[in-house]
Amino acid sequence: MTRIALLADLHFGAHDPALVSALEEDIALMAPDVVAVAGDLTYRARPEEFTAAARFLGGLGLPVVAVPGNHDIPSLSLFDRFLDPFRDWRLAMGPEMEPAWSNAEVGLLGLNTVRRAALRKDWSAGRVSPPQLQRLAVRAAALPGRLLFVVAHHPFLHPPGNETRGKLGRAPLALAAFARLGITAVLTGHLHRPTVIANPGAPLLVITGTAVSWRRPPGAQNAWSLIETAERGVIVSHRAHGPAGFAPLV
Ligand SMILES: [Fe+2]
Ligand SMILES: [Fe+2]
């Protein structure tokens, strides 16, 4: 059995230190094999926010598969945004923005959906390119016999109640590619509210919440998600923060 901790939208710079400690404790308790981080590590893509995020993730002592989110490229300095949007990410997290991890049972494949600009008003909604999907097919083929998980920031479908959010560019193309490649589940964030979308014949779409940021939508708890492999597929449980710390979301 493999256990994957799915974190997203940590938003260091807009985080609660008490929640960071509670999250560290809960991750140690649940003992995952690997940590998937589905973007938005920072609030304003400031170097000190990246440093705090990298320190936290490094302190977990686990393999980390982290991809950027729309908050991880500069929004205030257009000069930095266009010239080298991932510079501070690379300095803190290393050069790879589509990392991978595998064991004998599962493979995690990072996919960077963040774009510095778009031919539409909402830059934050991101996009996938056909070459990225072609590379994903090659990367998936290099991991035969594994349950495959894609880790990306933006959801490929939005759950009910999020109809007004900007949609990820080329999401239908990506979903068709994921189905063709036999991807088991797609692990994302961005909405700050945990949910799972299951459709027959399609990969499970797992969207997790924000575990440590106060940037919660109304009525949402701080949350992260645990994905465990089982005899037939995977089991997803969201762990939400309450008075006694993190516990299964009911
Ligand atoms: Fe976010
Ligand atoms: Fe986001």
TrEMBL record:
Gene3D superfamilies according to UniProt: 3.60.21.10
Keyword Iron carried by entry: yes
Pfam families listed in its UniProt record: Metallophos
GO terms, molecular function: hydrolase activity; metal ion binding
Keywords: Hydrolase, Iron, Metal-binding
Calcineurin-like phosphoesterase domain mapped to chain residues: 3-194
Family listed: Belongs to the cyclic nucleotide phosphodiesterase class-III family.
Name of the featured protein: 3',5'-cyclic AMP phosphodiesterase CpdA
Source species of the chain: Humitalea rosea
